[in-house]
Design brief:
The chain has 141 residues and is an alpha+beta fold. It has two domains: 6-80, no CATH class; 86-138, no CATH class. Helix content is 52%, strand content 16%. It contains three helices and seven strands; from the N terminus they run E-E-E-E-H-E-E-E-H-H. Strand 6 and strand 7 form a beta hairpin. The longest helix is centred in the middle third of the chain and has 46 residues, at 64-109. The termini are far apart.
Amino acid sequence: MSTSPLFVSHKEMDYAGKHIVRGEVFTRAHLRNDKALLDLGYVDVFEGEPSHHCAQCGRSFASEAHYAPHVRGCGKTQERQEAERARHDQAQQDNAARDLMRRVLAEASSGAEPRVTPEEAATVTAYLERHTEPVAEAVGA
């Protein structure tokens, strides 16, 4: 049995850096808002051991009613989540590259010699390669 109390979720939510689905049994992380989650009915303390476990993703469920629909869509859900994470990571990299380019342009326009590390140069190069190729193809270059 787990050393930390278990919760069962009544609502889909993010908790302690993990996405929790309805009916999922998960270990309490002892966060500041745990009492509020209990009081608002988002979770309940779960007694015993979960009876259903997803072999694909490792999630545990309190009942067949929540486990069965999860299993039917689990692989697709994981693929969507991985794709969303990849898009999110790419957007963060793109934002960092744009911020870097703005900084370099500001330094250059003020007459200062722009300072760029090799890692920063690689970040900007990768950004430009991703975003200029589609433009060149579109204009027939």
